[in-house]
Structure formats: structure tokens, C-alpha cells
Amino acid sequence: MKSFFNLFVAFVCCFGYSQKKSLTTQFTTEKIIVDGKFDETAWLKADVAKDFVMWMPDNGKAEPKEHRTEVKVTYDNEAIYFAATMYDDEPNKILKELSQRDDSGAADRVGVFINGYNDGQQEFSFIISAAGVQEDFLFTESNGEDSSWNAIWEGKTQITDFGWTAEIKIPYAALRFSSEKKQTWGINFIRDFKRERKFYSWNLIDNKINSRGNQEGILNGIENIKTPTRLFLIPYSSFYLNSNANQKTKGNLKGGVDIKYGINDAFTLDAILVPDFGQTTFDNVILNLGPFEQQFNENRPFFTEGTELFSKGNLFYSRRIGGSPSSTPELSANESITESPGKVNLLNALKISGRTKNGLGIGVLNAVTEKTEAIITNDITGTSRKALIEPMANYNVFVLDQRFRKNSSVSFINTNVTRNGNGRDGNVSALLFDLNTKKNTYNLSGDYKYSYVNLLDTENKKGYSSSINFGETSGKFQFGAGAEYISKGFDKDDMGIQFQSNYHSFYSNGSYRILNPTKTFNMFNIYLNLYSEFDNRTGRIQQGMLNFNLNSINKKNNYFGGGFNARPIKTYDFYEPRTADQSRFLEIPEVVNAFFYYSSNYNKKFALDFNPSFGIANEKGRIGYGFSISPRYRFSDHLSLTYSVEYSHQDNNLGYVGNNSSSNEIFMGRRDRTTYINAIQGKFTVNSDMNFNLSLRHYLSYAKYSQYYSLNTNGTLSPTTHFSQNSDSIFNAWNLDVSYSWWFAPGSQLSILYRNNATLFENEFVNDLGTNLKKVMDRHYLNHIFSISMRYFIDYNSFKK
Burial, 341: exposed, middle or buried (Cβ in 10 Å; 0-12, 13-18, 19+)? Predict the structure, then answer.
């Protein structure tokens, strides 16, 4: 045990970084007007952060004098301020495309990365473009950049005859830091010199090291700040007008409030009362013929902003909260469902998160959803009854995350779902560790998870999973290897999303990358991965894949690359047969897939993305092919339009179609499948606070069956005449959003949305794109929604004054 402890200490303690740059700021009593002009005397006394070096592509190269960058810092009891000067000997060529918030577009940018704990693991990032467009995101080594996080801050820019300037005010409410009287913050400044696609940083971010947060400089001088009360109220009011051909037009008025309260300088409470998510982006629903549910992105701000702690261990899938009902009602003779809500309403939610001065992160998230019922009508008597399809439920996540040595952590996370009455309850706990050497050259990580599901009417379900991963994480050549074991009873689906269980797997990978540009490439890397997966009961192989990828950027800043994946042996799918205990399996033939992509330089007015692919299986006539192509054009700094089309086709694909419970037969079908996706994204930006957006998507996918089979116990197929049901299917979906957004004050927004949509699922159809587009846009199927929403940000301190 002692030798193991000594090895552990050596692993996390070896060697240190090169010396970091430091900057000392001073307190000011002068009122700073954020206008990009630097008129205040406080800027004359401020120290200068200068001598930036290139981050990408020529890592470590000093910035040229004609493109030098200088940043000054000052602070008061309300906020910290930054004055940045970006020199440019050709100011008329400065790129300054206008775009909506968090979308950089084709524009020069400058930004500040702040770590109030100086622990190397989390940065609050604030970026502003030469056009005045704001971006902000949370950065962590484990999750990368999370742009869903939004803060309230100010920034103004000016184009000058020597380049451009930016002045930024970041209130302390937008940051997290300890309560120490004398603060030491990690800080870095970046400049994106867009027309040459060059990134510079004040403190060197060494590309040999896969750890950005540990390569910040140091900000000293912040002392004895008296931060104001962090209490913000965001009341909202929304009006919705709904219409379609089958019902009268009806209006719906909603109102509620979001609350943000700073418990102290480190911990924050966020709560939503009577939430409204009616204007969130539509889901890209597909024709799902596989055994697993479709996973959707989270578009609701409450569940995307500042949720880094809750994503630990991959146990939390926020779409479970307020998602689709988990059951369908049982019908008696002569009954039918006349009303069934597609979503479960969220009643309220809150989250508390923060980190102590000793690096202990604590997070609690809790949400309550309402009881949901369907209406069942007797077709003969006309009488109706209610049937429960989702009980009232409470969702909870609790996290403890202890950071140490600026690049390592150990964590505990628990998720719990409690449903009222006889509903299913689920509980999952996990222990995680993520250890890095001091120079971030090697990583050792892993976890142990345990789940307990109370099924009430049957035996309770228990299970566990565990994984271990080791890899080299620095230099040109890198490698990694790991393993995972998931037991039969492990189930995290109540609050997470899980596709498979009862298997063990192994992987190894290696990669090569250039660290500085060559005569041909600004960036070049190759990646090789081997993955194998085995069923725990039978030992049969479920996956055996080899993947190879190549990615590059040439000297003209065009992206291109490609790769292939191959499964050189037969494998066995325990999920496609859809048995409750995964006891049956389908034999899957060997397969090879290849792809290529090209993406031209987005700095140019016209740009193009192109991605063809092809695959072939070791089975007669079983192939797949497709492509996506997306031209985009920037008409001006205000207006741009992107069109994309995707096409894919599969010949002689196989999949589940049904079963006969009395004979224990499972039926598979051979099908040809075709998918078309047409989409348009457009934006007209009036200024950095006001924009119009267009989002259009037509999705059409259909499958036609030519032969049915009975699944044999050894995974092979035999032709059958016992199955005669028509399994042909088509999914035809149309979505159109036209929106207007105006940030009329910091944190306050007026948004107007017109949306129409329709979805059709059929078994009898004509496989023609034009015919189906015309059909889905017929007025009998279209739903129309017009909505206006106003959110107003109230700072308690301003309100008190």
C-alpha cells in the first residue's frame, strides 16, 4: 500500500510549468464609461499586458509589431474592466461581420479568459468582435467550451485609423471567485486575427500540452472588494396564438419569473417558476427504425447554462425532465384515445452550484414535473375517462467535485427520480477520478457507478458499471487505452440515457499531429482507434471496429480530410431483435465505410462544405452511400444565407419488423431506405443587439421492404411466409421558424417568432420528393404558431436605487 501511495504521489506531482506572465491591476474610484475610447485617467495608470504570442497555427511565434495587441485592466467594487487595443496596419481590411450573440461570424475578435480560483480547471470566457458582437462561454478541460452559458456584461468597440479598440466591463456577478481579501486570479487574453486565421494569446498556450486552463497568466492586485448583492429577477410574459385547419385559432397568455441569487461570491441559486420554453429551437426528428430512442440536444436555457458540474459521469440527460410521457394507457373494447399530451409540463426547477476556496465544487439541481393524463373516449356511449400516462415526479442531481493540484479531480454524483404513487423510481450514484501529471503529459481516469431501480410490481433492479482509461496527452504522438464493464442490471435511464448494458469493452488509440505549420499545412493530424465489445453472458463479440481519420487545414485555410471504419469480422447484435432480456441476437456481416470532407475558408463571401460517403457489407447487394453539400454566401456584414442538402441511401439493409409471442418467432425485414434533408439558415443582423433569423428544414425518409425473414436462434435468417404485415414506412416532416430578437437592455430581450410545422407518418406512400414536400405543406397538416415574449432583467441593486 505504501509503494502504491508513493507511485500515486509521483504521478500527480512530477515537474512544473515554465514561468507564467503576471499583471498587476489597481483599484479605481473613477466611473468607467464603456465606449471603446479609453478617456478615463485610470487607463493612463494601468499596467499593460503585451508581447502576445501565436496560439494557432504557428504556436509560440511572436506577434508582428504592426499587429501587436495591448490590454489594460482596472477594477472597482462593482466590476472589473478591460481596455484592449488591436493594432492593424490595414484597418480597412478588418473583418467585422455582424451576427447574433455567441456566433463570431467572419470578424476579428478579442477576449479575456478568467479563472477566479486560479486552479487551472475552469475559465469564464468573454469575447467581443470588431462589430461589437458578444460571446461568452464556460471552459473546462473535460467539457471544452460551453457556449450555452450566458452572462450579463458590457462591451463596446471602435474602428480606428491604427486598428480597433474594445472596452469591456464584467460585473462580479458574472464570475466566481473565493471570498479572500486578497485575490489571485488566473487570466489570459486572446486575439483572433480573422483574415489570416491566426490566434494570439498573452500567456503562451503550448499546443504540446492538452491543458489550456493550466496555461493562464496571473492577475494580482484585486484586494478588499465589496461586491454588491447578487440578486436578479427576470420576469417574463409570453403570448401564443395557435392555429391549424382542424381547430379554431386560440390564444394563450403565459407569465413567470426566473430568479438568480448569489448566496455568496462563490455559490449561486438559479430558479424558474412557471417556466416557458415555447420559443426554443425545434428538434430535428428522424425516422428511427433502430432499437434505441433518438437522443436530442437540449435547447432550454435553464438546462444548458452553467451545468458543467451536473454533466459529471454522464448520468444526467436533461431531456428526461419534461420529456414525453413514459407510458400509454390501456384501452378496453370500443375505446380510443381522444387527447394525449406529447410533453410533460415542468412545474418548477432550481439549481445551486459553486466552489469553495479549497476547490470543492457543490451542485444541486431539482425539478418537479406535473401529473399527466390522457383522455379516453368510449366510441359507442361517448363517455370519457382520464388515464394516467405520467405521474407527478421529482428529479434531483447532487454533485461533489474536489479539484486539486490545478489539473486533477475526484467526484461523487447522485441522480434520483421519485415518481408519485406506483411509478418507477430510479437512483444512480457514481465515484469518478481524473488524474493528470503536473505537466499534463499523462492522464489516468475512471469511474464506478451503481444503479438501483424500484419497479414496485416486480423485483427491484440493481447493477453497476466501471471503466478505466490511461493515455499520453502531450506531444506530437499520443496514445490511449481503456476498458469498461457494464453489468446486466445497470440502468441509468430514469435521469440519464443508456443504449446498452451487460457487456464489456476494450479500446486503444494513437494519434499524430503537427505542432507548427509546414509548407503545405497549417494543421494536420491523423487518428487511429481500435474498439471491441463483448456480451457478458455468451462472450460473443458485439463490436469490433477499426477507425482511421485524417484532418487538415492547408495554407489557404481550407479544411479537408477523410477516413474509414472497418469491421473485419462478423458481430452479433443483441438489441435489434427487441427481446426484453436481450437473449436473442442477429448476426451482422463484415463492413467497410469511407468518407471525405471539404470545407472552404469561411472568411470568403462564398464558401462550400462537401461530404460524400460510401459503405459496403459482406452480403450480396448490401451497400450504402450518400453525400451532404452546403453552399453559403455572405451578401454583406449584415446578411448571410446557408443552404444544405443531405442525401443517403441504403440497399438491402436489415431490421426488426415484428414478432409472434405465441410461437416465439422474431421477424426481420430486408429494406431499401432513402433519406433527403433540405435546410436553409439565414440571418439579417441590424446591429449587435437586433437580428432576424430564418430556419427551415424539410426531412423525408422512407423504407420499402422486399423480403421478410424469421430469426434463427444462431442469429441467421430464414425466409418466412408467417409475416404479411405492411412494414413500409415514411416520415415526412416540415419545420419553418422566422424570428426577430432585440436585446433592448443588458439581459432583457424581446423576441417574436412565427413557426409552422407538420409531421406525417404513413405506410402507403409515393417515394417522390416533390410530391411529399407538397403534401406535408398542405394546409390540412400545417400547424401555425405566432408568439411574442418579453423578458426583463432586474438587478436588485439598481432597483433599490
Answer: middle
Q: Measured between alpha carbons, how far is 84 from 109 in angstroms, rounded to an integer?
A: 11
DSSP code of residue 264: S
Q: Please name every residue paired with 272 in a beta bridge, in sequence order, or none if there are none.
A: 258, 349
* DSSP β-ladder status, 163-171 and 690-711: unpaired
Which cell numbers in the block locate residue 616? 459496403
Residues 738-761 pLDDT 10s = 999 999 998 899 999 999 999 999
Class of residue 34 by CB neighbours under 10 A (exposed 0-12, middle 13-18, buried 19+)? middle
Cα torsion at 520, 525, 526, 529 (round to 10°)? -170
Tell which residue, 366, 367, 383, has the closest CA to residue 375: 383
Amino acid at 146: D
Measured distance CA(691)–CA(682) in Å, rounded = 11
Q: Residue 138's closest CA among 117, 162, 122?
A: 122
Q: How far apart are the first and last CA of the chain?
A: 62
Q: HSE of 416 in the Cβ direction (CA atoms, 13 Å)? A: 10
- Residue in this structure with the C-alpha cell 441593486, named with its chain if needed: 797
Question: What is the gyration radius of the CA atoms in the chain, in angstroms?
Answer: 28
Cell numbers found for residue 304: 444548458
Which residues are bridge partners to 700 per DSSP? Answer: 676, 732
Which three cell numbers, joined as nine digits, stand for 539? 462472450
Dihedral over alpha carbons 308, 311, 317, 321 (to 10 degrees): -50
In this structure, what DSSP letter does residue 182 have? B
Q: Please name the residues in contact with 495: beta carbons below 8 A apart, sequence gap of 6 or more.
A: 315, 316, 317, 320, 395, 397, 415, 416, 417, 426, 428
Q: What is the pLDDT of residue 801?
A: 64
Cell numbers placing 556 = 489557404
Q: Do 567 and 591 meet the contact criterion of CB atoms below 8 Å apart?
A: yes
- Torsion angles phi and psi, residue 326, rounded to 5: -90, -5
Backbone angles phi, psi at 301, to 5 degrees: -55, -40
CA-wise closest residue to 347 among 376, 320, 317, 368 = 368
What's residue 288's pLDDT? Answer: 96
Residue 800 makes CB contacts below 8 A (sequence gap 6+) with none
Picking from 115, 129, 238, the residue whose alpha carbon sits closest to that of residue 637 is 129
Q: Tell me what percent of the chain is helix, strand and coil, each rounded to the nearest 5.
A: 5, 55, 40
Q: What pLDDT, on the 0 to 100 scale, is given for residue 22? A: 96
Spans in the chain with pLDDT lower than 50: 1-17
- List, as one string, the DSSP characters of 16-47: -PPPPPEEE-EE--SPPP-SSS--STHHHHS-
447-487: pLDDT as tens digits:
999 999 998 777 889 999 999 999 999 999 999 999 999 99
Alpha carbon distance 132, 99 (integer Å)? 9
Question: Strands 217-220 and 22-24: what pairing?
Answer: parallel
How far from the centroid of its chain's Cα atoms is residue 581's Cα? Answer: 32
Q: Which residues pair with 771 in a beta bridge?
A: none
Assign 59 to helix, strand or coil: coil
How far is residue 234's CA from residue 747's CA, in Å, rounded to a whole number?
Answer: 8
User: Cell 457478458 sits at which residue?
Assistant: 536
Helix or strand (DSSP H, E) at 771: helix 769-776
Q: How far apart are CA 532 and CA 535, in angstroms?
A: 11
560 exposure class (CB count in 10 Å sphere: 0-12, 13-18, 19+): middle
- Is there a contact between 111 and 135 (Cβ–Cβ < 8 Å)? yes
Asked if 359 contacts 117 with a C-beta cutoff of 8 angstroms, the reply is yes
